[in-house]
Amino acid sequence: MRIEPARLAGVVTLTPQPHHDDRGLFTRTFDAGIFDEWCGRPGAAASFVQ
Questions:
Q1: Could you give the maximum distance between any two Cα atoms of the chain, in Å?
Q2: Where are the chain's structural domains?
């Protein structure tokens, strides 16, 4: 998953990165651990709203 800051303060863009192999593809649409690590606030993903 690629995480980039958006133009609006405090907003980020989460872009899934599909993984392909002979079985098909897998896409992680959201990972709380990656998000928390990126923003530096443990537990921040608990307030994630889609």
A1: 41
A2: 2-20+27-47
Q: Please indicate, yes or no, whether the overall pTM of this predicted structure exceeds 0.85.
A: no
* Calpha distance 5→23 (Å, rounded): 33
Q: How far apart are CA 27 and CA 18, in angstroms?
A: 4
Cβ–Cβ < 8 Å for 12, 5: yes
pLDDT digits (tens, 9 = 90+) for 1-15: 888 889 998 888 888
Cα 10 versus chain centre, distance: 14
If you average pLDDT over residues 22-45, what whole number do you get? 82
